[in-house]
Sequence to fold (342 residues):
Amino acid sequence: MSKHYLVTGGSGFIGSNYVSRLIKRGENVTIFDNLSRGGSRINLEWLKTIYGDSSFRLVVGDVRDAGLIQEAAVDADVIIHLAAQVAVTTSVSNPREDFEINALGTFNVLEAARISTKKPAVVYASTNKVYGEMEETGVIEDTNHYRYFDLVLGVPETQPLDFHSPYGCSKGAGDQYMRDYHRIYGIPTVVFRQSCIYGPRQFGIEDQGWLAWFVIAAIMGKPITIYGDGKQVRDVLYVDDLLDVYDSALANINTSAGKIFNIGGGPQATISIWKEFCPILESMLGCSLPVQSGDWRPGDQRIYVSDIRKAERELAWKPRVDVKTGIRFLFDWVKENQTLFN
Fold:
C-alpha cells in the first residue's frame, strides 16, 4: 500500500531525486518548497516533464509558515525534512534568516508532526558541521591531504557536539529537537548528519555543494577559487546511496526511531577538495584548470570523514557508488545539460 510522503525542499537537489524515486514506486507525494534556491524551478519542471503534473502535489510555501506546513502535513505518513538554508557563509552574513529557516523551520515541521493524528515518521537532513572544527582532534598534514591522527574509521556519533558558525548552531538546534521530540512525544524521528552529498540535479555554487560547483565551473569555463590550501578532506557520498539509507531507516523505523547516524562515503570514499579532486576533473575535461587562491573561510574543517559503521550495522546499508564513478556520473550529467547553467 502506498504512503503519503511530504518532502520539504522537494524540488532541491536531494529532494527532487527522492521525489523521483518515490513516484517511480507509486507513493503519494507532496512537495513543499518555496522555490527560492537556484535550480529548484528547473528540477520541478523536470519532475513534471518526466512524470506529469498530476504525479505529485505541490505546495509553494516556506517552513517558517507554521500554519502552512501544518496543513501540508495533516495526512502525511512520512515527512522528509530537507528544506534549509545551506551555506555557512550566508549564515555568517545573515544569522537571523539562517536561524528562522533552519531552527524555527525545523521546529515548525516537528510541531506539525506532533499535532498530526498520524504521528508521521520524520527524517531530518542534519550536517557534519554540528561537530565544529574539532580543534582538539589530532590532524596530520600530508603532501596532498589531511588525515586524522587516530580516527582511522572516521568521526563517530559519540563525537562531542561543538556548534561552530550560525549554520552549525541552527542545524544543530534542529538536530537536537528531532532527537528530543522522539523522547518526549514519541515521534519516530531519524537524524542523518550528512557529509558531502553529490550527484545529478545539483546546482552547486561556490558557497555550497563544492564538488558539483567545481564540475560546473570547469565545464562552463567559470573562475574557480580554492579557499585554504586545497588539502581539506571530505568523505563524499553519491545521492542514490543517501536515498538508500533514507529508505532503509524508514523500512526499519522500529530500529532507527530516535537515533542519529553519521552518513557519508566513509573512509573508503575520501578526497581532498582540490589536490586530489583536480587531477580527476582535469582528466575528464582533457585540459588543465586555472585556479586562484583565497583565505580560509570561517568554520571550514581541515578534514571531516564519517564513521558510518552504525548505519552499516543497524540499517544494513553500505555505499555502493565509488568516488570516481560518482564523479563521472555527475560530470556527464552537467556536460549533457550545459544549457541549464548559462
Notes: The radius of gyration is 19 Å.
